[in-house]
């Protein structure tokens, strides 16, 4: 019972630790003009449980918008608006989310971010399933111990030599007995 619950605890723990990543949007460039967010986002893998952190100055804002508003830089009907940096956005579900800056014409200048959020279970389940795959590779390692059966021959030789020793001792004793009888 106890070992089983420990295993369950570890299984629950590892995906959680794997998923919880905080991404500083734009890296060192932050949330600003002159940063290519397509390139930045393309180098990340976002999963449910991760979060985005927008770092910016007072000349910018963070607006979550629909896909259509993202494409057209329409700032008129945001899903949410934030203007107090840093802004943290939790990625709580699978899907694509869109963010733009609503100040000036920054969105038109490329200050817009599309984030594809994948299932944490798939990402977290990946490593565990690949781990079982390794146990599948366990048979080879079992073969290795079989190869390690090479040592037993060494032990066998040892046993053989010791039994040989026994024979020698036996012969010596027999010789002594024979000699003793003769004497
Ligand atoms: Cu801006």
Name a few traits of the molecule.
single chain, 183 residues, alpha/beta, Immunoglobulin-like, five-stranded mixed sheet, three-stranded mixed sheet, elongated, binds copper (II) ion
Descriptive notes:
With 183 residues, the chain is of the alpha/beta class. The protein folds into two domains: 2-127, Cupredoxins -  blue copper proteins (Immunoglobulin-like, Sandwich), CATH 2.60.40; 149-182. Helix content is 49%, strand content 18%. Helix 1 (2-19) packs across helix 4 (120-136). The chain is elongated and about 120 Å long. The termini are far apart. The structure holds copper (II) ion (CU). Residues 59-60, 101, 103, 106, 111 line the site of copper (II) ion (CU). Copper (II) ion (CU) binds next to loops.
Helix amount: 40-55%
The assembly state of the depicted protein chains is: single chain
The major β-sheet equals: 5 strands, mixed
CATH class of the largest domain: Mainly Beta
Tally of strands: 8
Range of strand content: 15-25%
Shape summary: elongated
End-to-end span in angstroms? 74 Å
Q: Helical element count?
A: 6
Structural class: alpha/beta
What is the domain total for the residues?
Answer: 2
- The CATH homologous superfamily of the largest domain is named Cupredoxins -  blue copper proteins
Radius of gyration: 35 Å
Q: Provide mean pLDDT, rounded.
A: 74
| CATH fold naming of the largest domain | Immunoglobulin-like
What binds here, in terms of ligands, is: copper (II) ion
Named at the architecture level, the CATH assignment of the largest domain is Sandwich
Which stretches are low in confidence, meaning pLDDT under 50 for 5 or more residues running? 6-17, 122-168
- Write down the secondary-structure element order: HEHEEEHEEEEHHH
């Amino acid at each position: 019972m106890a070992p089983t619950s420990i295993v369950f605890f570890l299984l629950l723990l590892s995906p959680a630790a794997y998923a919880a990543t905080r991404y500083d949007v734009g890296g060192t460039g932050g949330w600003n003009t002159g940063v290519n967010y397509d390139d930045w986002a393309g180098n990340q893998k976002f999963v449910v449980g991760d979060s985005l952190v927008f770092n910016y100055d007072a000349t910018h804002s963070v607006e979550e918008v629909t896909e259509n508003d993202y494409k057209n830089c329409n700032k008129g009907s945001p899903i949410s608006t934030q203007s107090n940096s840093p802004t943290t956005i939790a990625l709580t579900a699978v899907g694509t989310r869109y963010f733009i800056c609503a100040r000036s014409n920054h969105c038109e200048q490329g200050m817009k971010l599309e984030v594809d959020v994948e299932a944490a279970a798939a990402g977290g389940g990946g490593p565990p399933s690949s781990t079982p795959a390794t146990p599948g590779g366990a048979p080879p390692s079992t073969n290795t111990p079989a190869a390690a059966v090479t040592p037993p021959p060494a032990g066998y030789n040892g046993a053989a030599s010791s039994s040989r020793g026994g024979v020698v001792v036996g012969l010596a004793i027999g010789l002594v007995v024979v000699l003793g009888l003769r004497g």
